[in-house]
Design goal:
The complex is a heterodimer of chains A (149) and B (200). Chain A has 149 residues and is an all-alpha fold. Chain A has helices at 2-25, 84-87, 92-95, and strands at 76-77, 80-81. Chain A is extended. Classes of the chains: A mainly alpha (149), B mainly alpha (200).
Chain lengths: 149, 200
């Protein structure tokens, strides 16, 4: 008997929460937009990754440099890191690539290793390619004169 | 037993008194076409992606890795399937590869790579077999489609152009740089020092 009353109370409070949500959902727009579930939503134009361009200038100090090329299919796992086939110290000259910063060889205790440290191994955690997309909002950010080339 | 063999030999060597030469030639010619066609059809049946992935060793490992690559899905819809890269096109080299493949049948029976763990333990050896073969044949199977004589450098990316020109001048072949384009690579830190993490 006691259990059923708890169940009842839970159901009622659940129903109350559900009833109060329509007010919330008015402000939330789903990724589908306002298209009805049984109607086709409009196609969103796919953004294309900039495939192969000149290196992109940095805008602020300590900005991870952006990737100026397509990285589709580039594997980074425990066995292989595609980026290092061009950006490692041994290969960058021949590949004409930017070499990996030596700061990436230090582990979290500050010990410098012979190769990229595990915490810096997954390049695209910080370095990302760019798509041909206009900024969504106006941006008045100006790079510091000291790093502006 | 010996007698019956002798009889058979005698029958094969004795000129026919019963059939005309024309009849024998016609029958021989037609059955030649049938047997040769049958042989080639059987060989082609084993030269098909569906045949390759009928073995779970291929389906669960290399086939699934290949599904994420450009040789499986791309903008023009041209797909390079298993035999396009792993079996030579011309008959002479194809038959050699097919005979070598009998070793793969043996290992299928032995269950050498019948779990993903076993497969991954042997991945380096298997990959190196392919790299060695590709290097020895100047990446012949790649060049069935990607002939550098047909490459238009002006259509390539700005990073690819100098690399391709330099590599071909140095006599390099596709596999020298393009390893692991269709399947996961083995632990490359074992063969390439730049691939090590930390102080490995």
């Amino acid at each position: 008997m006691k259990f059923s009353s708890i169940l009842k109370a839970t159901l009622i409070s659940g129903a109350l929460i559900l009833c109060s949500t329509p007010a919330l959902s008015e402000h939330v727009k789903s990724l589908r937009g306002n298209a009805a579930l049984d109607a086709d939503s409009t196609n969103i134009e796919l953004k294309r990754v900039q495939e192969d361009r000149a290196p992109i200038q940095r805008d602020y100090v300590q900005q991870p440099p952006l990737i100026p090329h397509d990285i589709e299919g580039y594997t980074i796992n425990l066995k292989f890191n595609k980026c290092m086939t061009c950006h490692s110290w041994a290969n960058y000259r021949e590949a004409g690539a930017t070499k990996i910063s030596q700061t990436h060889f230090a582990d979290r205790t500050g010990d410098v290793h012979a190769n990229v440290a595990a915490r810096r191994y997954f390049c695209n955690q910080c370095h990302v390619p760019q798509v041909d997309a206009a900024p969504l909002v106006e941006n008045e950010f100006k790079p510091l004169p000291s790093i502006k080339q | 037993m010996l007698n019956s063999l002798k009889n058979l030999w005698g029958w094969l060597c004795r000129p026919s008194a019963k059939y005309t030469l024309g009849g024998l030639l016609t029958v021989g010619f037609i059955s030649g076409i049938v047997f040769w066609g049958g042989f080639n059809t059987a060989m082609e049946a084993t030269n098909d992606m569906d045949f390759c992935i009928s073995c779970h060793e291929m389906e669960e490992n290399v086939y699934r890795e290949y599904q994420n690559t450009i040789h499986y899905s791309n903008r023009t819809g041209v797909r390079a399937t298993c035999p396009d890269c792993h079996v030579p096109k011309d008959w002479q080299h194809k038959i050699v590869r097919k005979i070598q493949a009998s070793n793969e049948v043996l290992h299928k029976i032995l269950g050498t790579i019948d779990t993903p763990e076993k497969f991954n333990a042997k991945r380096m050896e298997l990959a190196q077999n392919v790299w060695t073969a590709m290097k020895a044949t100047d990446s012949r199977e790649c060049r069935n489609c990607h002939d550098f004589k047909s490459m238009d450098y002006t259509k390539q990316g700005r990073r690819a152009v100098p690399q391709h020109i330099k590599a071909f001048d140095e006599g390099k072949t596709c596999i020298d740089c393009h390893k692991g384009i269709a399947h996961s690579l083995p632990d490359m830190s074992k063969v390439d020092a730049t691939q090590a993490i930390g102080s490995q």
